[in-house]
Design goal:
The chain is α+β, with helices and mostly antiparallel strands. Helices cover 35% and strands 20% of the residues. A three-stranded antiparallel beta sheet has the order 1-2-3. The longest helix has 15 residues.
Length: 82
């Protein structure tokens, strides 16, 4: 066994093409939060029915709607929570 091998990150099995979404999401996050240092990210796009989830730095969760209707739904949620 090679001792230099690192344990596989849970996001290492991302399908080809998903990295395009992850890059776009990271770009949107950096535009909205320019002072946020991003050390790692993990895209979860197989589990949710309506949203893609991007976990940044193993602790911050960003949700991206897959459909236009989802944008309004998230807006309604944020309006209720403020």
């Amino acid at each position: 066994m090679n001792e230099n091998l690192q344990p596989e990150h849970p996001c290492s099995d991302i399908e080809q093409g998903c990295s395009i979404y992850r890059a776009a999401y990271l770009q949107a996050i950096q535009a909205a939060y320019p002072d946020l240092s991003i050390h790692n990210s993990c895209l979860h796009n197989k589990d949710g029915q309506y949203n893609d989830i991007l976990i940044v730095n193993d602790e911050i969760i960003f949700r991206f709607p897959r459909y236009p209707e989802g944008v309004q739904s998230i807006q309604n949620e944020t309006d209720r929570s403020s």
